[in-house]
Structures are given as C-alpha cells and as structure tokens.
Specification:
The protein has about 200 residues and is α+β, with helices and mostly antiparallel strands. It has two domains: about 5-105, no CATH class; about 115-195, SH3 type barrels (Roll), CATH 2.30.30. Helices cover about 45% and strands about 25% of the residues. The chain contains five helices and eight strands, in the order H-H-E-E-H-H-H-E-E-E-E-E-E. It has helices spanning about 5-25, 35-55, 75-95, 100-105, 115-125; strands at about 60-65, 70, 130-135, 140-145, 155-165, 170-175, 180-185, 190-195. The strands form two sheets. Strands 3, 4, 5, 6, 7 and 8 form a six-stranded antiparallel β-sheet that branches. It has a two-stranded antiparallel ribbon with strand order 1-2. A hairpin with a 4-residue loop joins strand 3 and strand 4 (about 140-145). It is elongated.
Length: about 200
C-alpha cells in the first residue's frame, strides 16, 4: 500500500515529465492517451531529464531519505528550463520528421513520426490543391489550415476558386469567388484531394 509520503515522492519525481508531456501535447498533434499511458510517458520524460541533469552536474537534484525529502533548490531552475526545452526540441523533431527520416534512410523503418498520413501529406506537400467532392464539384485554393484527424476532414482554403467547365469550349476554368478563404467541412463529403505541381 502506498502511503502519502511515497505518493509525494513519486509525484515530485514525475513533475518534470508531466510538464514536458503537456508542452509536447500543445505543439505536436498526437493520438489521445489514456491515464496510464500519460503516467508512463511522464515517467520516461522524467527519467531522461534527471539522467541529463546527473550527467551534467554529477549529482541528484532530489535526495529522498527515510522520512524526509531534501531538495537541491539550485537544481530546480535547471530542471524547470530543461522540462520546457526538452519537449520543444522533441516536438520540432516530430513535426519535421527528422529522426524518422534518418531511420527511413537507414532502412530501419518505413514509418513517419506523425500520427496520420493526412498530416504527412499536408506537412510535406505545401502547395495549392484541388478538392474533389462526391457531388462532382471541384475547388482550387491554398490549404492554409487543416484538421489533425483524417476522419474529420476540415480544410481552410485561402483565395478559393471553383473549377467549372466552359459551355462553349468545354475547357475547365477558374471561377474566382472573391473570398479571403473558405472552410471545407466533413459535411461537404471530400472524395479526393489533388496536390498540384508548382
């Protein structure tokens, strides 16, 4: 049975990890975790943070004795700073797929660090798109914003234009809408999205 002192010790150890985990959730799109997974992630992040601290300073920031906790208060500043910097570096790595790009180059994996192909495509192909709807209509524009979940496909098109067929020439042309942008919602039933060459 865990008493309140043991629970306090565990909480103190996990605080840097929880800070890092929450910051990472703000800057990177990730799949939702259950409570147990959140604690495990905080534990891993805390372990990394304390290990880096121990390597640099050759000491432990928190000394737990039989019934007392002794803080090295000077180390709290480092732990606080590193608890913020660590998820920022990790988040930049995940968002830009840096580590996994190297792993793919070495043929270790074929996966990316992002949570879906939807995000992979929008991150890697920054160009104008044509959205094809199930009813046959087509619209052109710049995908300025997009949802993180492919099963709820929201896309905000900047400077949109419908693609229509000229009745005389049967050629396709752009019909400018004169709008700053248009939000495409799941109710409009996207069939496919074409990413144009520059």
């Amino acid at each position: 049975m865990i008493d309140s002192f043991d629970a306090l010790n565990i909480l103190i150890f996990l605080i840097p990890g929880f800070i890092s985990s929450n910051i990472l959730n703000f800057i990177v799109v990730r799949k939702e975790k259950n409570d147990f997974s959140k604690v495990v992630e905080a534990l891993i992040f805390s372990l990394v943070i304390y290990t880096v601290y121990a390597i640099i300073f050759k000491e432990t920031p928190v000394l737990i004795q039989e019934k007392s906790i002794i803080f090295n208060w000077e180390s709290l500043l480092f732990l606080s700073i590193f608890s913020v910097l660590f998820p920022l570096i990790l988040g930049a790595n995940i968002a830009n797929d840096l580590l996994m790009k190297g792993a793919r180059f070495l043929r270790i994996t074929k996966n990316t660090s992002r949570s879906s192909v939807w995000l992979d495509v929008f991150y890697d192909f920054k160009r104008h798109v044509i959205i094809n709807f199930e009813n046959g209509r087509r619209i052109y524009g710049w995908p300025m914003y997009y949802s993180k979940e492919p099963d709820k496909p929201y896309v905000f098109l900047y400077n949109p234009a419908w693609i229509v067929e000229d009745e005389k020439t049967k050629e396709q042309k752009f019909l400018k809408l004169g709008l700053e942008g248009m939000l495409i919602t799941p109710e409009q039933k996207i069939e496919s999205i074409e990413f144009l060459k520059e």
